[in-house]
Write a structure and sequence with these properties.
Helices cover 31% and strands 19% of the residues. It is α/β, with parallel strands linked by helices and 254 residues long. The protein folds into two domains: 177 residues, Vaccinia Virus protein VP39 (Rossmann fold, 3-Layer(aba) Sandwich), CATH 3.40.50.150; 38 residues, no CATH class. This is 18S rRNA (guanine-N(7))-methyltransferase. Keywords: Cytoplasm, Methyltransferase, Nucleus, S-adenosyl-L-methionine, Transferase.
Length: 254
């Protein structure tokens, strides 16, 4: 790998660990999802913490073994779930790996199912009150929505922290997730001049917002439409004004 790639990887690992907000008085056990050749792990070890890394690539893990990294390594596809005891980890980081779960590499692969399996088992494996910080490169806003929706379904709260939102090159997305407690979402770097609401896609644990009493989804209901329009407005898109006719039922055409 070029030294530039290594440098970027190290910076992102550093930022991810910083966003975990770990206690300073004791070493922690962290999970590194998509650990590759163990570059993030090197930083975790330097900080005095212990780690276990998971990766789907035997070649990358071979490099990690050659480099004699200090963490334990596991060859696994995180889309099948995180195979560890409940509450085992004090935190989880992941550098540019989670977006791969959005791809269906095999016919049997369903991205929403794989993401849900990953997030629900990760939630279980993390100690209450801990965090997971997942840096990712989303292809588009739909991918971001899919990833955050599945994290939310699995029980996480939190949201997206965006560093340097106004820079095409330096912009970085960190999905900052809380387990069992709702923490305050950290501020993104370089967002002082940007409007905060826009860049921190917060989500809460109101998992049943758009379900009616019988459990049916009320997608396309008035509330759902108004919320979607509001979201579009925040993204700076042209949206028609709301009126008393918004979301009205139309009679079927004959």
């Amino acid at each position: 790998r070029s030294s530039r790639v290594v440098e970027i990887q190290s910076q992102m690992s550093e930022r991810a660990v910083e966003l975990l907000g770990l206690p300073e008085d004791r070493p922690c056990l962290l999970l590194d999802v998509g650990c590759g050749s163990g570059l993030s792990g090197d930083y975790i070890s330097e900080e005095g913490h212990y780690w276990i890394g998971m990766d789907i690539s035997p070649a990358m893990l071979d490099v990690a073994v050659e480099r004699e990294v200090e963490g334990d390594l596991l060859l696994a596809d995180v889309g099948h779930g995180i195979p560890f005891r409940p509450g085992m980890f004090d935190g989880c980081i992941s550098i540019s790996a989670v977006q791969w779960l959005c791809n269906a590499d095999k016919k049997s692969h369903s991205p929403p199912k794989r993401l849900y399996r990953f997030f629900s088992t990760l939630y279980t494996a993390l100690a209450r009150g801990s965090r997971a910080v997942l840096q990712l490169y989303p292809e588009n806003s739909e991918q971001l929505e899919l990833i955050t929706a599945q994290a939310m379904r699995a029980g996480f709260t939190g949201g997206m922290v965006v560093d340097y939102p106004n820079s095409a090159k330096a912009k970085k997305f960190f999905l900052c997730l809380f387990v069992g407690t709702s923490g305050t979402l950290p501020k993104g770097l370089g967002t002082e001049c940007a409007s905060e609401e826009l860049h921190q896609a917060k989500f809460t644990n109101e998992r049943t917002r758009f379900r009616n009493v019988k459990g049916k989804s009320v997608k396309k209901s008035r509330d759902w439409i108004l919320e979607k329009k509001e979201r579009r407005r925040r993204q700076g898109k042209e949206v028609r004004p709301d009126t008393k006719y918004t979301g009205r039922k139309r009679r079927p055409h004959f």
